[in-house]
Amino acid sequence: MKLVFVTQRLDPAHPTLGATSAMVEALARRFDEIVVVAASASGPLPANVRFRSFAAPVRALRGLRFESALAREIVRGRPDALLVHMSPVYALLAAPLLRPLRVPVLLWFTQQQAGRALARAEPFVDAILSVDRRSVPLASRKVRAIGHGIDTGEFACANHSTSREPLRLLSLGRYAEVKRHDMALRALRLLLDEGIAAELVVRGEEALPGDALVRVRLGALLRELGLEGRAHLLDAVPRQDVPSLLARTDVLVNATRGATADKVVFEAFAACVPAVAASPVFDALLPPELRFADAEGLARAITAAVALPAEHRRALRERIEREHSVDHWADAVLACTLARA
């Protein structure tokens, strides 16, 4: 079987897209041939994976080069399916070439902001795969919840002492308003005021022009709350450094607004590190005491997370392995391909 996998870039070190490499590797263990179509690719690829580039300096030219690369691949041999990773526009561009050949077009999407591209692509795809039905901002019968694709083998189960001070908190994600790192700063202030020794590290990428401004505002809030020396606004880490970063963390804070399913929450539990999250998507995974709606609730959730027994942490890791591992994810992609072949 042959699968065409479309993504923006394939780079195991990329802070945001680095996990895509593990997804491709898992798919390569299930399909005879994988063709990655992306703007760029780096790092070694499995023997049965080939790469085609659509890199271009402007969006319109990238679209033309994508269609050209896909057409050349079709001439080489009809694929059994095409899977687009997070970019609905490429599903829309691929559909005119693949639908006459009855090749299923699948879209993996888990993001609360989609613009018009997702709605435009929906009529032309066979299935929209996501972590949870709520992690797709579109009401469609085509949405399929298949869990996240976490490479659990990257994460060792951390064994932290509950008496260690200061408590080490981590908020990991882009410097974007939706990530609400400001709520983490306010919760830290509340913990300190209660006499709980704690420190917060924010690690984030400035991927869009507005992100730098958000980081400046967070710096001003940090000083306003008197958190110098207690909170640190740092750059993003390469993807391969996330496991060691989590191993040095006592509680992961995820205050992202809306029905999101941020990968790092699942990764934290894979590392036996308790996470607290605001998104309603985590209501089936996190006990109520680890969820929150505001800074006061976040401070209480952090306290509850610290007290989470070791056996509960291991049980959450086992659940991630069963329901959200990259192998579970790749099995679901294969099953969806076979159902529509």
Helices and strands, in order, run as EEHEEEHEHEHEEEHEHEHEHEHHH
The second-level CATH architecture of the largest domain is 3-Layer(aba) Sandwich
CATH fold name of the largest domain: Rossmann fold
Which consecutive residue ranges, at least 5 long each, have pLDDT under 50?
none
Global geometry: globular
Number of domains: 2
The CATH class label of the largest domain is Alpha Beta
At the fourth CATH level, what is the homologous superfamily of the largest domain?
A: Glycogen Phosphorylase B
Strand order of the largest sheet: 5-3-1-6-7-8-9
Strands, count: 14
Average pLDDT for all residues: 95
Structural category? alpha/beta
**Alpha carbon gap, first and last residue:** 10 Å
The main β sheet shows up as: 7 strands, parallel
Cα-based radius of gyration, to the nearest Å = 21 Å
